[in-house]
Amino acid sequence: MATTQTAQRYVGGGVLRKEDPELLTGQARYIDDLTVPGMLWMHVVRSPYAHARIVSVDTSAAAAMPGVIEVWSGEDLASEWQGSLPCAWPVTEDIRMPTHWPVARDEVRHVGEAVAVVIAETRAQAKDAAEAVSVQYEELPVVVDAEEALREGAPLVHADLGTNECYTWTLSAGEVEEVFRTAPVVVKERYYHPRLIPNAIEPRGALAVPVPAQGEFTLYSATQIPHILKTALTAFTMANMPESKLRVIAPDVGGGFGSKLNVYAEEAIVLAAARRTGRPVKWVEERHENYLSTIQGRDVYQDVELAATEDGTLLGVRAHLVADMGAYLQLVTPGIPLLGAFLYHGVYTPKAYDFRCTGVFTNKPPTDAYRGAGRPEATFAIERAMDALARRVGKDPAEIRRMNFMPPFTEPTDVISGLKYDSGDYAKQLDRALELVGYEQLRKEQAERRSRGDVKQLGIGLSTYIEMCGLAPSQVLSALRYAAGGWDAATIRCLPTGKVVVVTGTSPHGQGHVTTWSQIVADELGVPVEDVEVLHGDTAVSPLGMDTYGSRSLAVGGVALHYAAEKIIAKARRIAAHELEVAEDDLEYETGRFSVRGAPDRARTIPEIAFSAWTAHNLPPDTEPGLEATHVHDPGNFTFPSGAHVCVVEVDTETGAVEIVRYVAVDDCGNVINPMIVEGQVHGGITQGIAEALFEEGRYDEHGNLLTGGMTDYLVPAAADVPSYELERTVTPSSSNPLGVKGIGEAGTIAAPPAAINAVVDALAHLGVTDVPKPATPEKVWRAIQRARGGAA
Amino acid sequence: MTHVAVTVNGVLREADVEPRTLLVYFLREVLGLTGTNVGCDTSTCGACTVLLDGESVKSCTLLAAQADGREVTTIEGLARDGELHPLQEAFHRNHGLQCGYCTPGMIMAALSYLRENPRPTEAEVREALQGNLCRCTGYQNIVRSILDAAQQMSGAQV
């Protein structure tokens, strides 16, 4: 493991966020805050039908409206594209990849698909004129549910593909058939993960600014992925737009959660509109559009089986999925289930493993990455099924987990699905969580309430989760047929005045990279944290990067920064040795200062060396002027954050109402740079996980209309809907990188849903309830109780 | 066009606007005060919360004309002479924000609430924030920030 001699002054400490002042005072610049001279507005006309043939698009009335510059149908814009919107993850060789134009040309396949665009002088004029665009449709049969879509004779979303099956992907290890045939105990479970709407509070938006005489474009977008966007748009979608002529800038971005990890139709359309009009063109999504045209999450059926001995020792795991792709494949739609495919055995050690996922087209908006992406589904499956196994063999949920945990380890360790977990101590996490929550006492109270027959029953739910982060070793991505690499890049530039500029390839949108990256560099180079400036999110400033998603930024981009600092220190050592006229080996380095061994007063600091490297008056032979280094880091392994969450609920057995009374989380994300930021990530993650378990569900009618079409119908939790969480951490440094870090962005969202549902089921177990579907609304809980009591539900 | 005259952050601002202009777009696009954000268009998320005559309102649900002759305070009007308001300080100190998009609305809603109830409990703060959604923080540090600010501000003129 590479190390540098650095006193940790900032890493691990509570440095307040450097990002905050502008965000607290209204000086932030989100996409809708940007205005440029001559700017036009775009409004998108969207399909009201989930499946229809476009008979005609009449733009004449709209074109005559005040302020309108252009109105285009999909056919009108056809020459702008070299191909479909990109899908970068064709997971199998025989995957079916439908054509996906930014604006539909012949057929629409989900409500909200773009059919025409209006360009006008003002936001209001564009919107007014959009209502005057007349589109004639011929309705086609609709299929809404993924399992229905696989049935013989189901309406076809893409007639030319001849089937709604997009792909089937499998992974198997061990003697699966034998294990399940001979196992004394087999538990079979079935789970459905409802559609989730990501709901970043900032809607999406894009602004394209052309320099017509040069054929150059700057695209500002509320995106998590400026680098990938630049390459993907020019490589796959935009006709005749060289990558070198496009600059992408992610300004301040108001949350993403995966929903801004994409290449969207509107990003391509504003570019096309700017090219055609020669003027800047801006589009900002309205919330109801966000519910129709931004990707959604989950929508997966799972059949899960565990094979075990009579005492509950886990022998085999089998998980078969049907995953709804929606109508089209967005950037990584097909790959989302694969991000969980290796984790269905969790932190346990079965000897047989079988995973299969069938991706299916339906007439709904595309699914794609939503916080956790594949890993919440995997964790829910194994953690709920472990509770089912505990019930079957008559063991406590804590005991069934403890007896099946992988033993503690600190070096890469093979697991059945083919991964190498980096480090972990799963029993320690669980023990600590149970201690914090007072498990024994809660079980006693639960027994008392049961014996009294209280209306409000107590439930305790466990979730001992693991996730796969640090995406990703490029060769592994290649083996999984992902189209790009998983590296990231960092540059450190020591300015002659002693200040330091860091350029990162990650693209933060709330995660606090500016602060965290400053802490890392300040410690490594021995400069004050406020002397470090972090630049990001602009492909002209930060040309190399793979952006921010999948809890990857610290474990890949932060580690790249560490290696860049090592290069800076190595060069500075050469210069210091030359100036001090000693051998490099005679220098000691600590907190930014090289001193001569035995003569500590003879020294040079990094800022001093930065100045001499800039003047270049007296450099060692063959040394380039300047003190700057770039490192591109391709991780050798994933990282595997883990933890134990305990959710305690009170369930009203008369009304079905669920209240979370305690929530304890013991997480292990390896070494921690900024504890305050880590806790903030966990708070937010748990809340999104609880929302998935108890509140949120994107529901569609049989015609493919979204019934929960806005924030008034889709329950994004407010402050009073969730409790305060009690957090602790264990630290098992990752063996995958020299910082020992693992990632924390998604942990809460992955851990919380099974903890919450296990708690609800546990509260009602004595009534015979074994399952409550997500989200466990009062109605669903009440029905589960009635069913268990044998009544009509 | 409708003529509106609104005192915004202590300064009288006048303009002729389309009658349908919403207060939030008057602030953002006519006056250039982009600190107030738009999140949902349906007065659910509260990102657009400002003070109208000292009380919190959702500026995406009011017409600019309805603010004619009245006083509006936005997030840009909170810091005085380069000193952050105690609520802004408390949000910074307690990591009460991540992406920052809901933050101006949260702070304005909290300011209005603390004038009504200067010493709230945690449960009261959570109830008071019913009209303001945040997707990043899980609310825990927002609540902590507001309770912290309430302590700092107690005794002082809110």
Walk me through this protein's architecture.
The complex is a heterodimer of chains A (about 800) and B (about 160). Chain A is of the alpha+beta class and about 800 residues long. Chain A is built from 20 helices and 28 strands. The longest helix of chain A is centred in the last third of the chain and has 28 residues, at about 555-580. Chain B has two domains: about 1-75, Ubiquitin-like (UB roll) (Roll); about 85-155, DNA polymerase, domain 1. Chain B has five helices and five strands; from the N terminus they run ββαβββαααα. In chain B, helix 2 (about 85-95) packs across helix 5 (about 140-155). The longest helix of chain B is centred in the last third of the chain and has 14 residues, at about 105-115. Chain B is globular, with a radius of gyration of 15 Å. Chains A and B meet through helix 1 and helix 18 of A and helix 1, helix 2, helix 3, helix 4 and helix 5 of B.
The separation of the N and C termini of chain A measures: 60 Å
For the largest interface in this structure, which chains are involved and how many residues does each contribute? A-B, 57 and 58 residues
What share of residues are in beta strands of chain A? 15-25%
The count of DSSP E runs of length 2 or more, i.e. the number of strands of chain B, is: 5
- The pLDDT mean of chain A sits at 97
Count, helices of chain B: 5
CATH secondary-structure class of the largest domain in chain B = Alpha Beta
The overall pLDDT of chain B, averaged over residues, is 96
Number of helices of chain A: 20
Percent helix of chain B: 25-40%
Number of domains of chain B: 2
SSE series of chain B: EEHEEEHHHH
Shape of chain B: globular
The domain count of chain A comes to 3
Main structural class of chain B = alpha+beta
What is the name of the CATH superfamily of the largest domain in chain A?
Aldehyde oxidase/xanthine dehydrogenase, molybdopterin binding domain
Q: For the report, how would you describe the main beta sheet of chain B?
A: 5 strands, mixed
CATH H-tier superfamily of the largest domain in chain B? Beta-grasp domain
Unreliable segments of chain B (pLDDT under 50, ≥5 consecutive)? none
